[in-house]
Fold each of these.
Amino acid sequence: MSLPGSAASAPSRFHRLTRFALSSLKPGTVWREVGDDCRLGKLRETAWLDGLRGYASFLVYITHHLLWAHRGGLELAYGYDGKYQFITLPFVRTFFTGSHAAVSVFFIISGYVLTYKPTLLAREGRLLEANDALASSVFRRAIRLYIPVLGVSWTCICLYYMTGVFPHSPADFSRSIFSELYRSWYEFWVWSYPMRTKSTGYWTDYGFILPNYYRYNLHTWTIPVEVQGSMVVFLLALATSRMIPKYRIGLLAVLSYYFLVRGGWFYSSFVAGMALAEVDQIAKKEPFWPKHRQRPRNLLTWASLVLGLYLAGMPGLGFDTMTPAELAEQPGWSLVAKIVPDIYSDISVFVLSIAAVFLVIGISHIPRMKAVFEMRVMQYLGRNSFAFYLVHGPVLSIIGDRVYHIVGREHGMPGDMEEWTNLLPLPDWGPSGLEIDFILPHIVLLPVTLYLSDVCTKLWDEPSVRIAQWSYNKVRGR
């Protein structure tokens, strides 16, 4: 028998890591685990939010592929400039280009679930337990979010150099993988600072860096925002823990409005999620609507959902910002353009933040809608949502761009793709956004993205949760 610190323990540790890595590559594990939870009734009280987060991640996948594989115009309103495309119809467009509203939904869900437990404990008078829960959450939050980002980015860098397949021109990368890993760490150090107040970039030894964007996974700009918004709601949960619930909800509503009109749309979304969590907790014990007044309640919740779906389909200009005057030119949006505060240079985030609140309110009070997001497929997407969000960008830029070139759709990002172009051309029959040469590539791209997100969940996401909890347990006092 060997002691834990002896040389004999090294091989066993290596074997455990090897088994862990190989088991992470086995497909379908998460799907089976989710199926068992659904079948045995082990779903959490907030499981519908997990499903909603998963669908929002899938919507991000759809939108990014649409915008990557098309030359533009799909985000403009139906009928603008004489263009009448099916996927730009009101309400329909939300299910194709609604990923911008999905980001606000992410933030609302985070504000909801992060403060659900400490708020519930505070309402029950268990303030010490509430403070312990907040202390643990504050310590673990950044660790839990940043490890998967760094893990996925470094995995991609290693694959680039092992295979020689780069997301764009190899000239943009260092000759040595070690130099590239160091550069990625340096840029991670810059990007990960969450208390940033400026969105402008600045020069470094490696060139011009946008602090909001991490070169190795551009879609992760939301992660430092997640850390920042999380700290705000944690602080609010502590500051309001002794308040009477109705006053706490009122204060949160005022703060959410204040942040929204002052340009802090993401703060507004986090705080709105925190307020909705407490409203739902109270409603479970003391329903706001008596049984004989359910019809007005149902009308209001469906109206909230419909309004949210409409606003979530706000027209856009791709990567360009839209001014109120440009929005007013879009059919059906002139009234909305008048209510946007002047402080917003990109008015879409203001409108989409409001849309996300209406969507979450509507879904939370319609049992059939909640049941949809508690289905096995939605829970699977929810379990893998963070990993799916992290891997869909690299899959799109490395595999997706090549697949689109193979079928003859040369609308991706510029790069050295000539050798891939038109190897297996497909016809572009079908309405814009639903063409054959756009839909068929997803027979390959979607399963690959789902599989890699499954691997990422087991390899990086779930271990990051355990590492964060282990770290907190190691340093906490008794």
Amino acid sequence: MSTTYEDYEREYHGILARIRNFLAGARNYATLQEAQSMLNEAKRCATAMQGLAEVEGNSLRVQESRNLLQRDIGPLSREVQRQLNECQSQELMGGTTVSLSGGGGGYQPPDLESNYTDMDSLIRSSEDLLRESHSIMYETEHIGNTTLLQMGRQREQLENTNRHLQAVRQVAEQAKNILTGLGRRALKNKIALYCMIALLAWANLYVLHLIYKKHHKGSSGGNH
């Protein structure tokens, strides 16, 4: 059972090769029915390839798998259906014949039993095709559900990553605010320290001035 894009691709090309061999060789109603059944299998493979490519996010493979339906399956389906219609027409027309024997001619009635057998065969083949179509539809639905589930998981992962980034951004903003506050506080402390140093320097100068003034007055009084 194919599980990867490459597996479906190999199965797809193998089915197309068998169909082309059928069309290139001796064709009859049974082989054409088999070719039509294999075309449905090829459609299933192409649909699965497209679904897997969409899950992988590979746009090139998505476009390539879409082109398979138009490039390969479409023309082959039309050719097989055309040849099936020709075979059905030949089988239905072959039931009524006009026979000429001797000098006179007579009408031979159609072989109703043969016509009924052909109709039963057509009905059975239609039922088989319908069942195959239902099988392909169910498998396509399963692939679609699987694709949606995987996309939902990827969306959940992206949402979790987004929430994590928002939390990191909030922590970084808080850290920025704390660093800004510390910087402002350090600047205030620095300014206050400079003011204290300037005040102490002025006080020292003032004290020196008073000492000098007192000493100068003492010296002047001793001279007198």
Amino acid sequence: MSLRVLETFLPLGIIAGFLCIMGNTQYFIHKAAHGHPKHIGNNVWDVTMERRDKKIMEMLSSSN
């Protein structure tokens, strides 16, 4: 019985390990490409709004 349990841990460990590797790889690729980690669910629209907000804040700070 205990051998059967140990047989299930090996595939689960491999799957969990590869999921961690894939997540870390994606994190480091986004960090290298953008200079900071990408937020989850951040798409093109969010990036556009972020740039717009940054531009507005710069315009407001330069006018003061």
Amino acid sequence: MSQFLDKLAVTIRNYGCHQIECGVQVIQVFESWAHQASPAKFQRFANSAAQKAIKIMKEKHPDVPVIYFVNGGSSYLELQRDMGADMIALDWSVDMAEARKILGPDVPVSGNVDPTVLFGTEEQVRSAVRECIDKAGGPGNRHLLNLGHGVMQGTPEESVGWLVDECKRYRGKEEA
């Protein structure tokens, strides 16, 4: 199994490096099936292979940011802290404030607005943006706001606009 995972890590590294050499400005490594593994198996298999791939990409392209995303990875946050990635992406199943406590204030994070909120009202979307930013520590606090896993099929485009507009507009709790 370790030989297979080493080959997989090298393949991911090669693909990531190829993308960088073709002009991408950031790489996100997705661990799509981690939620199917126990914490011990996640650490032994998924985490170690991804960590190796990230390390090799960073050695070859140190100035290109690498984001690590573990789908359903909220129960593994403490295992993601030292991945070597520049940022940890969070899905919507973890409270942003709790993730901040586990990862610490120095680990850059992205996420984690629940994508279903985009089916709500304008005020619900704008409120979710403000809440996520505040729980991450406020504007400019090593946080890249985005959805916790992407835009769902059928999402009204207008709602995506509200999310982007509020993200640009919001300056923190003190403005209220």
